[in-house]
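Sequence, structure tokens reproduced for reference:
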Amino acid sequence: MSGHSKWHNIKIKKSKVDQQRGKLFSKLAREIIIAAKDGGGDPSANIRLRAAIDRAREASMPNDNIQRAIARGTGGAEGAVYEEVTYEGMAPAGVAVLIEVQTDNRNRTASEIRNILTKAGGSMGASVAWMFEKKGLIAVPRSAASEDEVLTRAVEAGAEDIRTTDEDYEITTAPEDFAAVRKALEEAGYRPQSAEITMVPKSTVPVAGKEAQQVLRLMETLEDHDDVQHVYANFDIPDEVLQQVG
């Protein structure tokens, strides 16, 4: 599917440059802090923390940074107090967006996010959360194994669905089965290209031409905001446009 999951994978591959690494580490640390605060500092018993640590390691975040973030989340170190807020809105072309932030100043962040959406021709405040559902999403490179082999492993471990794209097998799970499916794939020797619990659109909106460029520029601006952790959208944009803007 040419949509937000493919855009996200393009951004992962192209974001690991030095000038962006400090901002990336800051966002990853916030996620670890909140995950540890909510579910404790043991990643084996806290699925969200395990996923956050895995993302940090994939980004080459130093282990000392990870441990400091866990300590802050569990009350072992001082620092800013963050809260999680989700904003709902619309982008150009009728695309729905969910914006998850972690902030120490809700009023400031809300104002800044509203301003970004308005300048891009969108709006904040529309009720769109019902258009998405929480799922585990694991992407395994097609070079790792045949589709039948990956499908068998994934389904036996509890996966709901698998789709084949140009580069990956996209495996979808219920949130509670995510850890088990990922573990089964890794034990079989299939290293995921990406693995996360995400918000998947129930349906998508085809977007092309100038509007596609506008939507993707808005996505980049939102994702670049210091307080924004995740942006989810239900666009369906042609592959060549995703690659050009990515």
